[in-house]
Amino acid sequence: MSSGLERRRSESANSRRTLTPPPVDDTPLAAFFAQFAAFSFNESQSSNKNFDRLVKVLKCDVEDTQRRIVVREGFKDALVQEFNTHFGTDGNDISNWQNLCRVLRIDPVPDSIEACRQRVWDTHVNLVDLVDSARTGKPVKLFASLGELTAYTLQQKPKKFFPKENAYQGGLLKELLREIINPYFGKRRNGSAKRKERKRKQKAARAAAVLDF
């Protein structure tokens, strides 16, 4: 009897900690695209495809370098702010990490920040897909390895790259990006073969989710 009661209490607490997504019209990405009267934001379409359509609608020619930069930087700001809206900014808040675990279908959800961090870091996911899943409600695609994630990221048209650096990054996103950009594999003191393998994995990790666009 007591175990059932404790389980219900835990489920209730978890549901309270889950972030409730705001209406689509109020999200940073929707606000960014709404600036352009000639463009219609498709909320069921991926962020990068919406941006690709926007560039075509605005007819940002290669020669129009300054305009392309302004539009691109605005999109990158909105993408980062969208992450903050759905997943939070505080890397020391366990509810943010537990929410990430639930979105990434990690079960059971750990009850400590360190355990959550490790489970999230061990999960391979494209960050653009992660942001989009919060808006579309579709389960985010998970990958078995960094290699699979890298191949997927580079094969997408347009490619799904997440900004490496941005003024709007919160502590939580910085932790995720730091782990992706500079992951650590194995012990520090090992042979040259292991060092080469570690560097290969680090290179694959960097290519997977945070190459700039």
What's the gyration radius in Å?
19 Å
Question: How far apart, in Å, are the first and last alpha carbons?
Answer: 55 Å
Distinct helical segment count:
10
Category by helix and strand content: mainly alpha
Amount of beta strand: under 5%
Mean pLDDT rating: 79
Low-confidence stretches: 1-22, 184-191, 209-213
Overall geometry comes to globular
Helix-strand pattern, N to C? HHHHHHHHHH
Q: What's the number of structural domains? A: 1
Regarding quaternary structure, what we see is single chain
Count all strands and give the number.
Answer: 0
Helix share bin: 55-70%
Taking the sheet with the most strands, its summary is: none
Biased composition (Basic and acidic residues): 1-11
Region (Disordered): 1-24
